[in-house]
Amino acid sequence: MKKTFFILPALISLLITSTELLAFPKHNPVPGGLALIPINIDLKPKVFFNKHPVAIISKDNQSFALVGIPLDTNAGKKSIQIKWPNKTTENREFEVKAKTYEAQYLTIKNKRKVNPNAKDLERIKKERIRKSKARKYWSDTTVNTDLIIPVAGRISSIFGLRRFFNNQARRPHSGLDIAAPEGTPILAVEAGTVIETGDFFFSGNMVYIDHGQGVISMYAHMSRVDVKIGDIVEKGQIIGAVGETGRVTGPHLHLGIYVNQTLVDPTFLLPELKISTK
Description:
CATH topology of the domain at 11-24 and 116-158 and 174-276: Glucose Permease (Domain IIA)
Mean pLDDT: 89
CATH superfamily of the domain at 11-24 and 116-158 and 174-276: Glucose Permease (Domain IIA)
Structural class: mainly beta
Order of helices and strands: EEEEEEEEEHEEEEEEEEEEEEE
Distance between the termini: 36 Å
CATH architecture of the domain at 11-24 and 116-158 and 174-276: Distorted Sandwich
Radius of gyration: 19 Å
Strand content: 35-45%
CATH class of the domain at 11-24 and 116-158 and 174-276: Mainly Beta
C-alpha cells in the first residue's frame, strides 16, 4: 500500500487560546455526533438509546435528551425509547446524517505499541475491563454540560479519523488531541467525581471523571496525575499535566467524552475554539 499522509488543512497552526468560554452541546446527528431531542421532564421520564440510559439536560426552560451516536452508526432513522412512570413506552424518531471521516497515517517508533507481545496482551485485556467499567458508570446526579477547554495547545488530531499505525489499520480516533509541551496543566472540563485513574498500555496515564448521567470525560497520555479515585473536582481544577505516555508520537492530551457509553466528538460539547493562525 502506498504510504500517504493526511494533513489537517490549517489545523497544524491552530492554537487553542482560551479555557474560559462555556458551551452547550451542539445538535449534530452524525456518526460520532450528538442528537438533542426535546423532551418534557415534568413526568420524570427515563430515556434510552441502544438500551443505554440517556442523560437529560436543560437550558432556558427547555429540556433535551442528550443522545450520543456511535461512530459506526449507519445513516437513517433511529429512535430513542422514553419510559414514562405509568409504565408506557414511547419511541421517538430522529434522523442520523451520513458523515465520511478522513484517514490518518502515523509512524509509531515503539513497535510493541502497534503489535503487542503476549504479556502486553494480557495487560491490555485486564485494562479493557477497567475501561469498560468506567465507560458504563452512571450516577443520577444533575449533569452540567457547560464544558471548558482543558488545555491550551495546538489541535494535532481530530475525532473520527480512520487511523493507520505503521501502515496497519486500527480503530478510528475516538477523541480530540491537543498538542502542548510536556508539563502543561490539564484542567477538568466540568465538575465531577474521579472514577478511574491509572497507567494503561495504549493510553498511558489516564483520568476518568463522571459529570452525571453517563457524561464522562477521559484524559490520556498524561505525564502525571494529580487526582485519585473518589476525588470530587471542580470545573477548571488542575488534574494533571500533558505528557507522552502510552502510544504517542509526541506530547499531547487526548480528550475523550462519553455520552450514554458512546465516545462522541468533543468539539460538539466544547466552546467554539478560539484560535490563532499566527
